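Subject: diguanylate cyclase structure
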Amino acid sequence: MTTRLSVPSLRTWVGRRRRALFDKFDDYPSMVGIVGTVIALAILIGVAMLLRADRQARYDHALERAQSVASVVAVSLGGNIAIYDTLLKEMVREAEDSQLPLFPERVRDRVRFGQTLSRDFLYDAYVVNKSGRISAPLDPVHDKIVNVADRDYFRSHEANPSLGLYISQPYASRTHGGVLSVALTRRISAEDRSFAGVAVIALRLDRLGAQANVNDSSDLRSIDVVEEKGTVLACSPCERARPGTLVNLPGDATREQNLTAALSFPEGARAADYRSVRVPGASMYVVVTPSTRALAREWRRHALIFGSIAAICAATLIAGSWLLVAAIRTRASTAARLVNLSVTDGLTGLSNRRALDAKLAREWRRAKRSGSPFSVLFVDIDHFKHLNDEYGHSAGDSVLRAVAKNIGGHIRRDADMVARYGGEEFAVVLPDTDAAGAAAVAEQVRRDVERLHIAHVGSAAGLVTVSVGAATGVPGACDSADAVLKAADEQLFIAKQSGRNRVSTVVLREPDLSSDEVGKAGDVS
């Protein structure tokens, strides 16, 4: 059977739990400061973790952007190279079909159209015969004899019949005034498959950079086009290497490692800081480097703002927590003082009637559990009204304080108590004290007050004296602490009737003992 709490019961339970929690904080106020400090540190740690994650996210986004740009540029270059390769294949086919060093007009028109599309990136095309001489230039007007047998593309095709499309190393053009160029080439074969020459399309490296340029590149440090052997073909911007620069590579590195090594400048840069994509159909790569400097600058600004806010919040929380600790301690101290004032007599500094009643009840319960004797003294200043009338209330107050101090000086144990019962009367609670012990304490009080030698003309002794009534009870022989207190009061009356400045004692033996049956007072003065 499931027990369901009603709404009032739930509210009561929550209220109790809340009060219990607040009571814990009152007992241990430092817990508030410690909890506040821990929460503040947790906030700082959490913000630091979020900022770190944000930095990594920004870095990952920059790399994704670099990868995307590299792919776009590579596809764009691959499309141009595919067009140029188609023109090369047509040049090779015409040359092989006619076996003449010709540049057919239709092929020339298509090359011109390709030049228009590539914005002067493709600036020349020609056929090289098997001896290395340019025999069919795109522009036939000049009659200058140019031999390119020393070029790497010529030697590579001559030595390797199955080379296919070959991209040369950068070179200074001999037909266009030394313009830095790179050649896309294919082999021309004779009918017997022997080497017959090379079809060449020349590209200007200074125009290749335009192909790699991206309009929105504020978050990119550079875009580089690199030949697989380590030669930089184009760059935008060219802050680390110029086109045609050959970067030294480790001899035992693979091609991918070669590329990473070629682009790892400044030295010590991580390969993970770059994104590279191979150009489709060509032995070159597009490598994009994100602008980590701009990324770090933006992240630092972001971290400074949120870190400052988190630090201010944490500092405020810590300061507020410990100020609350101080406030709780002040409140507790004030409450303790109020409680102390509520149970303390303002004139004498002794416990008051309220504290006496609580003490009697508490000690009687303890006496009932242990079966030990329980004694109470009643002390009254003799002829106090006459003292007030003769010497004034100020002198009377001084006498009250002096007598209270004297009585309090006889209290040796923590369990004992002296209280001002009212007016000039005082009560002394003596737990675990038998009749003999109570009588001894009573006599010491009476004698020591007399020895104060405070003048009092209205007293028989000419000094301030006290009368003391003492009663001792044992749980089972009497029914309550009030009965013992009442018996002590009755003994005080007997002592006063017997001439004052004396002690009268009694031991309660029956629960229904009346005042007529109390033991005879003994004058022990």
